[in-house]
Amino acid sequence: MKRVGVIGLGDMGIGIADNLLKNGFQVCGFDLSTERLEAFEKLGGKPAKDATEVARESDTVFVMVLNGNQVEQVVFGSDGLIHELNGGDTVVVTATITPTEVRSLVSRLTEKGVEIIDTPVSGGKSGADGGTLKLMAAAKKDVLEDNRAVLDAVSAQIFHVGEEIGQGQTVKAALQALMGTCFAAVFEALVLGSSAGVPGKTLYEVFSASAAWSPLFENCGKLVLDRKFKGTGSHIGTMHKDMGITMQMSRETGAAMFATASSYELFQAAKSMFPDDDNWAIVKFLEQICGAKTEW
């Protein structure tokens, strides 16, 4: 059985590590937070002092950090994975970064015979905790199959989106355009009804019975109407960062993103006012404009 490493033990990484442990894998992990390392050790994992130590103890390493700069540092920094990775080892980039950033890792890893799987995830904290993430995996078929058991331990579905590294991040960027725009539409629709005096319960029931219903609406609508704006595992800063990647890719490809661009600006405005809140805090921003309160 493969030895597995996890770099980044935040809300997503700790769930990934926990499910690997539950599936019988030996797991070594690292995070800059002492508190996170202690929580990981209580789950049964082996904490490391840096990424280099994780590489020494692992055959496959998940990298679940915030952005491309952090991925670069984790893999190629002075205490990075590269110093102890061996031929045949695999780096699994589950962080959401730009296609260009993940492609920049390939040649330097290949020089050491190290494989890479470009596989951002969908499912949020609940998916990470429950081992039900959806993986958008770009990798050579044999590399994917060699790591199938490891990936199955943390996911409900693995979509092999191509063999070219960068395609995983490209699919995720497109997905986040859809997610962010849908979120914005839900927030605006609920606030519109509330501003005219319609109870949130009525709006929720009607929307749920219409063709606009979706699991996204069901979850999002309940959180908004319950006014749960923090601690839900969907931080506004993360979504704002992801949609920024989407907009960057649109500029590079020339794709027009009218609705996504407006949604991105909405996330940016709300993030500046509620930087510690989750996505649903956008409702508070919209409420301030019209003086409404959106609740059951």
The separation of the N and C termini measures 50 Å
Give the biggest beta sheet. 6 strands, parallel
User: Low-confidence parts, pLDDT < 50 over ≥5 residues?
Assistant: none
Tell me the series of helices and strands, N- to C-terminal.
EHEHEHEHEHHEEHEHHEHHHHHH
Just give the CATH class of the largest domain. Answer: Alpha Beta
CATH architecture designation of the largest domain: 3-Layer(aba) Sandwich
User: Which outline best applies?
Assistant: elongated
CATH superfamily placement of the largest domain:
NAD(P)-binding Rossmann-like Domain
DSSP strand tally: 9
Number of domains: 2
Describe this structure in words.
With 296 residues, the chain is α/β, with parallel strands linked by helices. The protein folds into two domains: 3-163, NAD(P)-binding Rossmann-like Domain (Rossmann fold); 170-290, N-(1-d-carboxylethyl)-l-norvaline Dehydrogenase, domain 2 (Orthogonal Bundle), CATH 1.10.1040.10. The chain is built from 15 helices and nine strands. The chain has helices spanning 11-22, 34-43, 51-56, 68-76, 99-103, 106-110, 124-130, 141-146, 148-152, 167-195, 200-208, 215-226, 236-253, 258-273, 282-290, and strands at 3-7, 26-30, 46-47, 60-63, 90-93, 115-118, 121-122, 133-138, 155-162. The radius of gyration is 20 Å and the shape is elongated. The mean pLDDT is 97.
